[in-house]
Model the fold of this input.
Amino acid sequence: MGVLIIIFLTAVIALFAGVFEKGKFSRYIGIAGLLAALFVSYQPELAFFTKYDAMFMFDDTAKMFTKITIFITILIFFLGGFAFNNHRSHQSELYALMMFSLCGGIVLFSYQNLVTLFLGIEILSIPLYVLAGANKTDLRSNEASIKYFLMGAFATGFLLFGIALIYGSSSSFDISTIQKFGIDNAKDGMFILGMVLMIAAMAFKVALAPFHMWSPDVYQGSPSLISVFMMTVVKISGFYAFYKIMTLVFIGVSAEWINILGVLVIITLFLANTMGLAQSNAKRMLAYSSVSHAGYISLAFFGLNNLSTYNLAFYLFAYSIATVGVFISLIWVEKLKKETSYGAFKGLAKAEPLLAVTAAISMLSMAGIPLTAGFMAKFALFSQAMNGAAFLVLVAVLGSAISIAYYLRLIIAMFFFKESTFKTSEKASITYKIVAVFILILIIGLGVYPDAFSMQFSK
Done:
């Protein structure tokens, strides 16, 4: 709870910095507040806050996911100085809204009640509707905002209808009470229907096909820094909330939902990876890549064991740092070339070898190539799922093989052109280079020694 309060107050201060025409300091205010929140997340929870445990319990698992999202948000904020240089008049609002959205994510890590779940999702989502349309002069950004808002409203309707049916069956919003009801009344029709509606709503939030239709347009149309925030922090929050409700609240009716999720995983992996091959725009390709990773992450629902939550956290962290690694190059190229087609990246390795190498290693990690964090994360999830869904693992391996093809197209554009299309005077900032080196160390370090993740985030 202390972490949540610190981030909320930091967002308010950043917002007021813009009011007093000090918006250029809002990024530094945000980073300082996030670092303070990260420090507090390692401390024991104050006894004063335990009175709210019936609605909001900041246990060890919630702390682990909170640390991950704060860490990723800090990395994203470091990229904001260059990414938001054309939003100087209102950049304080953008940083504040991202932190407000992060507050919603932290609520989703800690909810003990379906009302808290709903509030967390709305606090997470509403700032994103504004952030997606932050580039007011870009029609794609305007379209992304409207499309995300309309589709999000439909998903919220499904979620509320599902919660209403669950409450009508169990007479409670408390997740422990609902869990007991599900175990004792596994064939209750109203309960099952409520569960299915909630699956549809949560599948939308994490972009599982066929509920992914909003994500390619929204990810491509949003400002790139907002896109990477949605692909990482928002996905982490949504997936843990989804995982918690299915494996805790609805564990008594797992026989009813496991096959539904299996079908969604198969559709997601085939559709997203096939569509990724058809793209000629790097940002849209990464959008479909993000959808495909939703399929891989969903393997955490199968073959559940004591390490399932840890495997989920490790995969989400490995995927997130790799996504930030690719977007370092994408944001830099987009600012210079005003586009993100594959052609815009030609010769990047000659102009900015560090950014190109970071992007390449990050994509190889996403594909699951050995000696990267992505390989270890996929290996852990695939090994777990083998115990309950060997066919899905086969589909996931095939999907990973397909993904290598579209990642290689961008790598070839960056490295295999004799002449650079970038001016020699165009150089990335020292901040971008430091973040790039840091991400390279993380990806390779966790690929060689994955236990370092638990040493830092599972304390």
